């Protein structure tokens, strides 16, 4: 059984109050008493509980979410969840704040992260596209003792940072399976639409999608990814061009989180209902489009769960605990008109 503070006091031959003062670095402890407590810690294998220490010190955990400035309805859901977590966790000695910034300039993001100091924050959850500059800045944060969570979009070669979000290979593979099953034996092409292929989640979803289509549905041809960069005018132009040049497109896979812009661009050219359309994330637009058959399926993850999970993981790391894997796993949900 794990030794308690009472066991430590008995082993050291001091009072429980003295043990408390030593463990929590309080004043009025003689050097002799401190030495006896520290020797007893080694002798009986006492392990300090950082959570209890922080509670005794009334320590406030300071966490920050760094999110994109540009976004649509799904980003608004995430922002709302972060603000709700800020209010809900204040009584739990946890202060959550939020910073939005343009993610199109990785050097600017890296400079911002490089300016964060341990005295200012305990942990940061970052949603940023893959880039060497941002990845290196995140690694330096970890070296300085700031806990880092890659939020919904991860970076390769950064194993020291936790990741919160769905398995994006599996999410893309799920989309491939749905598209293939919906189309059955119908041959044709698949238009794949991304906001940017710089994002690690987009890369992984594309890889998972292509693997399933190539292995299980060889009569279907996924076209090169169309990138919209979240710009409605660009989306309208590139999607119109793709549809006009490929009249045998039978399906559309929107692998980024925001479906409103690409699906609206398709509607400007043709009725999407004869097409099989699979998108990611439930938003007011994707829910409405699912109900009226402009979208066939939504592959979703719960942003509220993701925000809470990122917060719990940062706190667990600070308290030198392992996060509970089953609790923090973000599950893939498949939403159809029939199960909304």
UniProtKB/TrEMBL annotation:
Keyword Membrane included in the entry's annotation: no
GO molecular function, one term: transcription cis-regulatory region binding
Residue ranges annotated for the HTH lacI-type domain, each copy included: 3-57
Presence of keyword tRNA processing: no
Keywords: DNA-binding, Transcription, Transcription regulation
Pfam families from the UniProt entry: LacI (PF00356), Peripla_BP_4 (PF13407)
PANTHER family, per database record: LACI-RELATED TRANSCRIPTIONAL REPRESSOR, TRANSCRIPTIONAL REGULATORY PROTEIN
Protein name: LacI family transcriptional regulator
Species annotation: Ciceribacter lividus
């Amino acid at each position: 059984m794990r030794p308690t503070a009472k066991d430590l006091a008995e082993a050291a031959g001091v009072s429980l109050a003295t043990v408390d003062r030593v463990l929590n670095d309080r004043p009025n402890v003689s050097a002799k008493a401190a030495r006896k407590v520290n020797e007893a810690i080694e002798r009986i294998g006492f392990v300090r509980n950082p959570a209890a220490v922080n509670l005794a010190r009334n320590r406030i955990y300071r966490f920050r979410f760094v999110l994109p400035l540009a976004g649509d309805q799904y980003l608004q859901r995430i922002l709302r969840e972060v603000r709700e977590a800020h209010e809900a966790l204040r009584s739990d000695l946890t202060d959550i704040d939020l910073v939005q910034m343009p993610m199109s300039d990785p050097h600017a993001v890296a400079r911002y992260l490089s300016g964060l100091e341990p005295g200012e924050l305990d942990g940061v959850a970052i949603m940023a596209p893959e880039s060497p500059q941002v990845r290196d800045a995140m690694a330096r944060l970890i070296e300085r003792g700031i806990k880092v969570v890659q939020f919904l979009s991860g970076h390769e070669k950064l194993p020291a940072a936790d990741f919160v979000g769905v398995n994006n290979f599996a999410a893309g593979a799920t989309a491939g399976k749905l598209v293939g099953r919906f189309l059955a034996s119908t041959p044709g092409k698949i238009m794949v639409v991304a906001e940017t292929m710089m994002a690690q989640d987009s890369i992984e979803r594309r890889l998972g999608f292509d693997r399933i289509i190539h292995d299980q549905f060889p009569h279907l041809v996924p076209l090169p990814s169309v990138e919209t960069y979240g710009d409605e005018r660009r989306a309208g132009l590139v999607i119109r061009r793709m549809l006009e040049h490929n009249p045998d497109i039978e399906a559309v896979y929107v692998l980024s989180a925001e479906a409103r812009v690409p699906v609206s661009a398709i509607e400007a050219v043709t009725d999407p209902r004869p097409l099989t359309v699979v998108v990611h994330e439930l938003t007011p637009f994707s829910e409405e489009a699912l109900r009226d058959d402009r979208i066939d399926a939504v592959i979703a993850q719960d942003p509220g769960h993701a925000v809470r999970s990122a917060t719990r993981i940062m706190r667990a790391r600070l308290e030198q605990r392992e996060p509970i894997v089953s609790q923090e796993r973000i599950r893939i949900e498949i939403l159809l008109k029939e199960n909304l």
